[in-house]
Design goal:
The complex is a heterodimer of chains A (about 100) and B (about 475).
Chain A lengths: L3 E6 L2 E10 L1 H15 L6 E11 L1 H14 L4 E4 L3 H9 L9
Parallel strand pairs in A: 2-3, 3-4
Antiparallel strand pairs in A: 1-2
Helix pairs in contact in A: 1-2
Chain B lengths: L6 H15 L4 H17 L1 H12 L4 H19 L6 E6 L4 E7 L3 E4 L5 H14 L4 E4 L5 H17 L7 E3 L5 H8 L6 E4 L3 H8 L5 E3 L5 E5 L5 H13 L9 E7 H13 L2 E3 L2 H11 E2 L4 E2 L8 H8 L9 E5 L17 E7 L2 H13 L4 E7 L3 H10 L2 E6 L3 H6 L32 E7 L5 H5 L12 H8 L4
Parallel strand pairs in B: 3-4, 3-6, 4-5, 6-7, 8-9, 8-15, 9-14, 10-13, 13-14, 15-16
Antiparallel strand pairs in B: 1-2, 2-17, 11-12
Helix pairs in contact in B: 2-4, 2-5, 2-6, 3-4, 3-6, 4-5, 5-6, 9-10, 11-12
The chains are: A alpha/beta (about 100), B alpha/beta (about 475).
Amino acid sequence: MPMLETHATQETIVIAFEGSLDTARCEELDAEIRAAVASPAGPVVFDLDKVDFIASSFLRLCIHAQRQAGGQGFHVVNESPLIKRVFKIAGLDAMLKA
Amino acid sequence: MAVRPSVDEYFRRASAAAAVFSQFSQEQTDRVVKAVHEAAFAHRVRLAKLAREETGLGRWQDKVIKNVVASQFVYDDIKDLKTVGILSDDPLTGIVEIAQPVGPILGIIPVTNPTSTTIFKILIALKTRNPILISPSPKAKRCSDEAARICYEAALAADAPEHCVQWLSECSIELTQAMMSHESLALILATGGAGLVKSAYSSGTPAIGVGAGNVPVYIEQSADPAFAVEQIMISKLFDYGTICASEQAVVVEKANAHAVAEEFRRRKAHFLSEEEVAKVERLVYDADRGAKNPAVVGQPAARIAEMAGLSLPDDVQLLLAPLDGVGPEWPLSSEVLAPILAWYVADDFSSAVNLCIDLNYYGGTGHTVSIFSNNDARIKGFAAMMNAGRIVVNTPSSQGAVGGIHNMLHPSFTLGCGTGGRNITTDNVTASHLLNVQRIARRRDNQRLAKFNLDLYFDESLDAKTVAAAFNRNF
């Protein structure tokens, strides 16, 4: 069962995802993610270290989180090459931490 | 009223779909393709009737067959193709081929085969993990949109990426051109008229286009007249001649002209008199506008006879126009997508082939030519003189060129015409054209070079033959 773990380091919100983030899983997590990134005091980070698949709805969640974070910053970290390529093809590679 | 997505929005969605698709395994991909094929096949009759009703062209029964070819036959042809991951790994050459999708595809749909072309393009795009945007003909928008919707819903139900299939909400030249030249578009599949294909090739985006046909069918002396005529009529009456690969002119020899003509007459084809030819010419070609009359496209022969003011039996099947030449002076020597055939009698094989060259080069270069013959040397001799991607033998040309029915050509609704038709390929376009194939090239040293004295290259006195002898010396 994919897990969602949220922790805050100083003011950074880090959300670690796991498993296959398909459409159904994203629907289940949607409310929780939106609540977690609502009006953040600092940067928001999505850790995709243990993720092996992402659907379009996850990309939309990333876009939403980026908007919410605004000037605080939003990044995706620890993505595998397969997932990195998804962000590249979708034109969202600016979200990936350099 | 729904707001039309912006061009950028269409491509934002397509890019996201391409991104998600890039993660799909062969098994996941094939599950999507199977589901789409089954859904399209299930709706084959309804979509055919919708296409007939909306376009007013052809026969719904024949459009059912087109939908069957587009779904069942195309699926059968592509279902076992490897289109994901490693395609081949040769330990001898050290080369590994890997399949990658090309990216978002714009599929342009003609009015003549709207639902079948939509189904076909969606299947080959999804098989290769490419999202597709369907650009329908304005005269076939409803039926094309419906075909796309059916395919898309089936794809989604099989867990395909969201927006893997989109269809443009309006038909306009401005929108189509904006879509064609968008930086996020990977490829245009341009099935349409010359203007559209030229526009596609000029857009800056890679394109695969098609050309016009002007198919001569040569009934060579060794052919069986009854069989040849039966097959030609099956082809020419199919959807009332709306397939671009249908025959446009019959060329016979003096030796078999009478026998062939009798076979046509037996099957209720009518040979036009000189006066009747003139009337049909005036109907088909508007000399003032310098353009063909679209009202004859896909109409039955009896209707055309009525429109031309001819008094013919109601059950006339086909009109044959005896002509003396090929070119602008003889409007019926060019492509007419209707049950009208030009008729030529040649002296012999050589003059028959010459006539076919004239017809082939008069608006049909690169497309298709047809021959009925049991003489293999003559078939090859004829083929060698033609500029055609398809030389169909002893088959109805419409079905023959489409492929998969009477021959082993890949079934396709996008028939490449090569450079003759200002296209990039002569192939029947299929899934394999929608992949970027990458190659890993492992080190495999050229052993002759490894043993060769390189200093010999710097000796200007040595010619190619001398160096080659040294290079190829087998120690």
